[in-house]
What does this fold into?
Amino acid sequence: MQTVTLKPIKEIKISVEAENISPDKFAGKTEKDIQSLEAWMGNQKTALGELFSVKVEGSGSAADTKIIMDGNFSRIKRIGEGMTAGLIMIKGNVDMHLGAKMSGGKISVTGNVDSWAGREMKGGELIIEGNAGYYLGSGYRGETCGMRGGKITVLGSALDFLGEHMCGGEIIVKGNAGILPGLSNNGGKIVIEGNTSRPGSEMAKGTIIVGAVDEMMPVFKPEGTEAVDGVNYKKYSGDVIVNGKGVLYVKE
It folds into this structure.
């Protein structure tokens, strides 16, 4: 088992691209090896050791590697991008693209995350104890498929366009969500326990379950009521404009 602990050694004001912070990249490496891994601060190349203190205990494969990040990482982007295994525990806030394209392993965050967390995620698990920004579990600009697999859980709320172009996997939001969750979906499952607005527009496939809807898009066909996990919901199908086969449940 390998445990790597990262802590900021200075206040970071300019955004940092740090996709090398990943169990796949840290596995089996020494403190010096990790300190020398590349990062970009704005348009300037730097190294992780210039930004963070690094402590390594033990050694192991990616699956046996745990990364503990303690401090303010609100300007650090792309943490865990493409990771396939292992664990990242973040005690603080993080910037955009957390866990983008990850296919395995687990990331947990005690704070808030910025936009595009879980972007084009294929597998693994992402747990956010705070709030999430825009485009959670979505595809980036021009992508026809967002989240494909895995699971994202947000204990707080999320902003607009949650699960846009989602093709698989599951997103659970315990709080509220902004406008247009499940936009242009082609699969997967979204659960919003609070309220949202205009869910499921242009969806072809997939399931959306919400507690309350402030505004419904006029593109769904009522299908009566149905119980889900012992709770009664109004059931709708659509988006009928695109001949969609998606299902939308709204709590009675």
The chain has a mean pLDDT of 97. The CA atoms of residues 3 and 12 lie 24 Å apart. Residues 31-35 form the longest helix (5 residues). The longest strand covers residues 186-196.
